[in-house]
């Protein structure tokens, strides 16, 4: 009977204190469940946006799309074809190595690099270098394209957007690479030619640093693009001016300075290198320091040719 009385008391109506205890327990259970559940993150908006005709993508070339420097690979191909002697090759290779290791752009040194590159092609026909460039791409460049970056470019193309290379390499070399990858075109350093023959001079300055940003601005204006809807991709802190003018900047295989800058500003990062550290990659070799005049000249000249 005592036991029966115990069960009977348990079935008595709940008191105010027991109701309070039950509600408190239920609330604690709900909070615990919410804290242990995986966090709910908002889905990122679709990018690139399909059918956005005012959007485009701009890709740096050296160490972003392709491993190494296009200018150096081009030089190897020209040496193989006896455009210059072994002594000149050694000097050219040392200039590239110094630049990549030092990571700084001494004006006097860059002028020396630029003069060497221009002296190689002086007196040669543009058509000749374009033909040779096709062969050099197959020999030294085709196998050095980063698959990850190539996929990024293809995503923009699949969305119906235009994709441009933007590089300090000669515009002829950049155009060959862009065509082989199925891209829209390329912005690059413009070497002066008269009657289809290189003079050994540049139009303006090499397309480097701030000049790239100016080239992209000029091309966007000519093509009716909205830069706030465009994307840019680069590995180098030298391209921060270009990355800063678009709405969707990406740091790809970034050097240390660009990685830090990108993290501070919430830019997206992509790294397709394996078994290497960014510090060992160095800054992409270029033919010289940037200038606004060179960038604008490259963009406008390319736009005129496309017209």
UniProtKB/TrEMBL annotation:
<feature type="compositionally biased region" description="Low complexity">
    <location>
        <begin position="34"/>
        <end position="44"/>
    </location>
</feature>
<keyword id="KW-0378">Hydrolase</keyword>
<dbReference type="InterPro" id="IPR023214">
    <property type="entry name" value="HAD_sf"/>
</dbReference>
<feature type="transmembrane region" description="Helical">
    <location>
        <begin position="281"/>
        <end position="302"/>
    </location>
</feature>
<protein>
    <submittedName>
        <fullName>HAD-IB family hydrolase</fullName>
    </submittedName>
</protein>
<keyword id="KW-0460">Magnesium</keyword>
<dbReference type="Pfam" id="PF12710">
    <property type="entry name" value="HAD"/>
</dbReference>
<dbReference type="InterPro" id="IPR036412">
    <property type="entry name" value="HAD-like_sf"/>
</dbReference>
<feature type="region of interest" description="Disordered">
    <location>
        <begin position="16"/>
        <end position="44"/>
    </location>
</feature>
<keyword id="KW-1133">Transmembrane helix</keyword>
<dbReference type="InterPro" id="IPR006385">
    <property type="entry name" value="HAD_hydro_SerB1"/>
</dbReference>
<keyword id="KW-0472">Membrane</keyword>
<keyword id="KW-0479">Metal-binding</keyword>
<dbReference type="InterPro" id="IPR050582">
    <property type="entry name" value="HAD-like_SerB"/>
</dbReference>
<dbReference type="GO" id="GO:0046872">
    <property type="term" value="F:metal ion binding"/>
</dbReference>
<dbReference type="GO" id="GO:0016787">
    <property type="term" value="F:hydrolase activity"/>
</dbReference>
<keyword id="KW-0812">Transmembrane</keyword>
<comment type="similarity">
    <text>Belongs to the HAD-like hydrolase superfamily. SerB family.</text>
</comment>
